Task: structure prediction
Amino acid sequence: MKKCFKCGALCDYKYDLCYDCYKAYENGEWYETENGYIKVYRPEHPKAGEDGYVYEHTLKAQQKYKRELEAGEVVHHRDGNKKNNHWSNLEIMTRSEHWHEHND
Ligand SMILES: [Zn+2]
Ligand SMILES: [Zn+2]
Result:
């Protein structure tokens, strides 16, 4: 059994993605960017790009901290997995805190 990289559910599938997440992908609800992040379709979100997609880790971190990201803040993935956007894996940091987190 593999684990779905997106939601963590166990999946018996040739891709490491469960059926629900695959369906959602087919429906255009999310996609993976070239640098390995997940973007979800939220055209009404202030941080959405012109295509209507916003980084899922940004959305989830905002829900966790119950505030917007401020300028100069980034979202850190604690386990180093850019696709693991479970709230417990996300941490809002300033850019310099984030730099030290990865370079110390
Ligand atoms: Zn899934
Ligand atoms: Zn980081």
About this structure: The mean pLDDT is 93. Residues 1-30 form one domain. The first helix runs from residue 19 to 26. DSSP finds three helices and seven strands in the chain.
